[in-house]
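Async update (no meeting this week)

Hi team, since we skipped the sync, here's where things stand on the single-chain job. The sequence we agreed to prioritize is pasted below, unchanged from the tracker. I ran it this morning and attached the output directly underneath so nobody has to dig for it. Comments welcome in thread, and please keep replies under the output.
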Amino acid sequence: MEKMDILETDADRQQRRNMSCAVLLSFSPFFLASAAYFYLSTFDLPPSIILAGVKSAPTLLLAVTVLGWNGCQSVPGVVGGLVFSALGDFCLVWPQFFLYGMAAFAMAHLLYSLTFLSSRYEKHSSSSCMYNIYKVLLAIGLSFFMYLYPFLQKKPNSKVLVPAVGVYVALITMMGILAVRTRHLITLLGSLFFIVSDMCLSLRQFIIPPVKLSETVVMLTYYLAQLLISVGDVMAVENKNDFAKWKTS
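Output:
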């Protein structure tokens, strides 16, 4: 009997490894589309519909992949967040549409936050260590907004920009805190990369003159963030389904 349990455990582990490989393989269109964007970005092209489409394609492909794995239950969650993110990618190609792009990403962070509160992520009581991480993220968000504040005030549209950026910083900070609460390492890393990407984008947008390397850093961390959040959501649903099957067997 003991030997049989060991064999079943090994089989379960093998099944998990196979599922992980299948998940990663299903995201291969995203990798190809991301590579196409980075290749196209080397030509220093002016804003255009084609550039906007290529830039938003990887995120849309992530949405399609997550939808294929999780079904319609993910539409008001990560899939919806990815679609809004793709809309934000599209808008940010043109500098004059920056506020529209930021609004789209704000909706994405709100949907991600709601997903991290859903039943697919196990409920965990917050430990003292987690509370410390919450405090660190809050401190980072507040400090970064205070750092940006004097630069935002100098912009022509500061009356709109200052509160808009403040709300955005609050939303992405909340998303990061709720990602910590899930205790899913992949999801947490994705959220942290998203915060890093947005901080780099803010520095480039409001403080540092745009340079080629800054765009690469912003998009590399951004695509990685979206990939990790997407994979984390797929794995969360699959693990939940496996647990439900085990419980009913």
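Quick observations from my side:
The mean pLDDT is 87.
The chain has nine helices and no strands.
Reply here if anything looks off.
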